[in-house]
Amino acid sequence: MKTVTTLEDLQSKILNDRICLDLAEQATQLVMGSGNPQADIVFIGEAPGKKEDESGIPFVGASGKFLNEMLESAGIERDDVYITNIVKYRPPNNRDPTKAEKAAFWPYLLKQLEIIQPKVIVTLGRHSMEAFLPDAKIGEAHGQSHKIPVIFNGVTASDLLVVPLYHPAAALYNGRLRQTLKSDFLNAARKITEY
Questions:
Q1: In degrees rounded to 5, what are phi and psi of residue 59?
Q2: How far apart are CA 132 and CA 109, in angstroms?
Q3: By CB distance 3.0 to 4.6 Å, which of 10, 53, 62, 109 could disulfide with 90?
């Protein structure tokens, strides 16, 4: 499948370009993404955690279990979507990725999206949201859909639907956000099917 080969080529390019060497040296591996490489929906988090660093698959720890639960509640199969992060290496001690780290990986994330060509991006947490909606605040923007122009292969494609959600980890640490995230997720799923 051409798309898979192209994503593998992009992974090799990240390694060859030696992006964020300080992160790469302390991480177990690059965590590129998983799921359907021709998905209409791409979920984007901030960076891999410990479990993700060990497995090489994004969102497999506690946050991933909660994400799976939400996907199931919305009738979406995890294998039908693509899941990735802006930063592809685990930051030490699960700290937030820095502005410089996000900037270093941004062109590669754009290339990843160009390869997949999704219709919808669901950002998980403020770090990934700010990459697409720089002036937005997660407390105000969560659950709302935003159309932004996207350029694939140098040509402006149709508008991309971006739906920012709280990060599943936030709901794990703050029980009050759990129901908000579930409600936002179900509303987002409805918007996505209509788009």
A1: 55, 60
A2: 11
A3: 53
Measured between alpha carbons, how far is 110 from 71 in angstroms, rounded to an integer? 24
Distance CA 59, CA 49 (A): 8
Q: 């990725």: which residue's tokens? A: 97
Please name the amino acid found at residue 104. Answer: A
Token look-up 């909660």 returns 66
Q: Looking at domain 2-194, does it have CATH number 3.40.50.720?
A: no
**Structural tokens at position 184:** 């936002």
Q: How many other CB atoms are found less than 10 A from the CB of residue 100?
A: 9
How much is the pTM?
Answer: 0.93
What pLDDT, in 10s, does the model give residues 24-41?
Answer: 999 999 999 999 999 999
| SS3 label, residue 90 | coil
Give the tens place of pLDDT for each residue, 135-178: 999 999 999 999 888 766 555 556 889 999 999 999 888 888 88
Burial category of 65 from C-beta neighbours within 10 Å (exposed 0-12, middle 13-18, buried 19 and up): middle
| Residue 192: predicted pLDDT | 80
Q: Residue 155 CA to chain centroid, in angstroms?
A: 23
